[in-house]
Amino acid sequence: MPQIVLAPMEGLLDCVLRDVLTRIGGIDRCVSEFIRVTNTLLPERAYLRVVPELAHGGRTPAGVPVRPQLLGSDPGCLADNAARVAGMGCDGVDLNFGCPAKVVNRHGGGAALLQDPEILWRIVSAVRSAVPAHQVVSAKMRLGFLDDSRAVECAQALADGGAGEIVVHARTRADAYRPPAYWSRIADIRAAIRTPLVANGEIWNTHDARRARHESGCMDVMLGRGIVTDPGLGLGLRAMDAGQDEAATTWDDLQPHLHYFWTVVRARLDRRQQAGRLKQWLNFLRRRHPQAELAFTALRTVQDPQTVEAWFASQQAGPATPTPNQETLFQRPLLLPA
Reduced to 3 states, what is the DSSP secondary structure of residue 138? Predict the structure, then answer.
């Protein structure tokens, strides 16, 4: 079956949302938010803060692997940190060559590295040498920085350095997140290298996924904002691939998962951040579910967690019930102090 990968999204797809989305189903693997590496060997607690799943075999409570992602520009330092996090128990290490954030790019990280294929090769080669052979070293790239003229060259540098998988976000840094995604350019890369590729960018529904696969030639896809907006998208793709009817995940289906998300947010975040974190997800959900629009409107100005609790009570939403052999975040010490 084609692989469905959950994207790294800084400030959104953290361990809590990873838990909820993998509990809903249809996801084969996750990549964590980036862990910034700058001239030092980070202690294990720094990795556990971003990827607490490392304390439990590198998997979410639903059993889905989580691959830590490193962001930096120094090959030696990245190699040392990759060796350390690989030793903590995960299926591999991912490298970020696609972040478009200005503060990251100003310091020579993320998509800025796509201006120099030689440094891409040096980074991947150093990390590949430091990580045990049975663990994957993967990379996520965009098509380029200002334009896509060196997209194939950059992908070849990653492949020649030893990347075992490359996710291609089919836009340049200059494109940011504006549609469209140029999936056909992934096909150009696919024609030039033999390394497995994963298509990413602007996949909001199963129709988009079908087009992305057709235009890129890649069956494996990475989902980001699309699956945050429609948490049943992974299940829909699974049904499509199996030739089955694509049953939609309804708002009623999501209610216990939304309540579970809120319960874990309250346990993990500072009181001042809790309501905002819930509204952040509702803001995505309202693109797909009219009921989420009503919920977002009702809670738009709310900051008090107790008021949010009262809203949940009015919806009569109960906590998600784990399936047999499925743990919750509260049945094992997944949440760690900052």
Answer: strand
